Amino acid sequence: MRVLKKAVLTGVMALAIAGSAHAADVKIGFVVKQPEEPWFQDEWKFAQKAAEEKGFTLVEIGAPDGEKVQAAIDNLGAQGAQGFIICVPDVKLGPGIVAKAAANDLKLMTVDDRLVGADGEPIESVPHMGISAVKIGETVGQSIAAEIEARGWDMSEVGAIRVSYDQLPTAVDRVEGAITALKAAGFPAENIYDAPQAKTDTEAALNAATTVLNQHADVKKWIAFGLNDEAVLGAVRATESVGIPAENVIGVGIGGAESAINEFKKPNPTGFYGTVIISPKRHGYETALNMYEWIANNKEPEPLILTSGSLALRDTYVDVRKDLGIE
Ligand code: FCA
């Protein structure tokens, strides 16, 4: 009996050691286009949680342009990684990234921004986790429309800043979703002005929105939407810089990371009225876990996962974040 027990125990231990040795051999890259953006820092944070839980190594790399992406993939290959997850600086780099990953024998998954091929269509062979962009955009539009009504504004006197980044399909889907909902609520299409940003950050959005505000100096009430919180914050900062009071501005972003939270924490409300909180936990933790399962257990990830969002305002964001498990 004792001998048997010992044999069983030894077997269990051997299995455990084999399992952990395997996990320790796994190295996964997590490459993001804008490491300074809180959303991406949160993704890394949650991916790191998966790494700690499973015992694999996570390599975080910031790659803001195509050249850095190429170097990052070669680097991961050279250090013996087996796969990586990436949010690319430009989705048109798709075919090159797929080829480089294959040349380095690396499994590839994308997050947030989906690669497109030479024909402009999504590269479906690369597993992807993104947000339900149209639906989330609609939530943005609906919440702005409801607040226009609550403030008793006459829609014909309101201008809309569409902070746009049209080279990115998910960005188009998000703002077009917002526009669909606004129009459905009766917002006049001719009052929507395009503010194309050169980069997806606050400064670029501020510059783009300022141009629109200067062109329509007669408009006194404004709404703003864009692909993320940074875009809307840029538009809100622009309204402040031309002296439009906060109560005349309704901006709703997408994200819900630190950029939005810092705004809600300000003692007085700003024109940044709300945000649709999306889940860095799913996008960071779950993608990393799925990649790990693919490498360690040959379990292929789902080809496409689209995550949802929840509207949060100044006085509800703490609870919404708690519900989403992203405290
Ligand atoms: C894109 C945006 C990010 C974030 C992410 C989910 O990559 O640039 O700000 O919204 O989608």
TrEMBL record:
Signal peptide residues on this chain, from the entry's feature table: 1-23
Superkingdom of this protein's organism: Bacteria
Location of the Periplasmic binding protein/LacI sugar binding domain: 27-302
Keywords assigned by UniProt, alphabetized: Periplasm, Signal, Sugar transport, Transport
CDD domains with a match to the protein in the record: PBP1_arabinose_binding (cd01540)
Main location: periplasm
Protein localization: Periplasm
Homology family: Belongs to the bacterial solute-binding protein 2 family.
The protein's name: L-arabinose-binding periplasmic protein
Species this protein is from: Roseibium aggregatum (strain ATCC 25650 / DSM 13394 / JCM 20685 / NBRC 16684 / NCIMB 2208 / IAM 12614 / B1) (Stappia aggregata)
